[in-house]
Structure prediction request, 274 residues.
Amino acid sequence: MARVVYPLTASEDADSRYEYDWAVLRVALQKTEARYGPFELHQSTHPMSSQRVAQELFTPGGRINIFARATSPELEQQFLPVRLPIDRGLLGYRMFLVRDSDLPRFAAVRTLDDLRKLSVGQGKDWIDVPILRAAGFNVVEGTNYPGLFGMLSAGRFDFFSRGIDEAQREYRERRGVHPHLVVEPTLLLQYPLPLYFFLRRDAEGKLLARRISEGVEVMIRDGSLNTLFQQYKGASIKAGELQKRRVLHVRNPHLTPETPLSRSELWFNPLTGK
Prediction:
């Protein structure tokens, strides 16, 4: 029986970012039971930082054997990627958490050059950091995810760039602690940023990667991936009123040639709803 263990993030008590990823994983494994047999899916009982997650997956016999993360060339070299963007590329559409007193500054932004005058906060070593720096942004890194909200409140940077569903959920979850943070309503930053499952580069990992890839492909064909996507992401997409926003595009110079950009059925366009 396949035993699949995914990580418990160090901030799980206030962090629902990964619920959708593991729901996709469970269905992908269910879709392939006839060919590959039964499975057990568990979450690690040991809270881990993102660095520890990578260490545990890299180490033979580590506490986990899968994680989900926005891709980078380094991750794709170190681990075995399932090159199917499980969130349909939604993570690359970025909304901003800002201080409510700064809303007029953002309403005045018309171009990327305007936005570059404002500093952006990101987690240390997040894949967004080199993308944003390559695009000319002043990026301020925080050492842990929960601390970034306090840094924004304290004026350490001007905006926290987040995924569409992340920004709205984080606003709801944290407005009691940070009452002056709001979701900026006029702008949308976009760059290609696929979210993949990653596995250990060993025989077990290769078998599991093949199984998950087949399962996700089935989900794409039978519509169950889109059903989950709408269940977990649809309300945020609608609430974001994306058609009213000014979209600013930047390149992601760190995508590998294997990125399936040409498969249009894999990618969601929140501006058209398809």
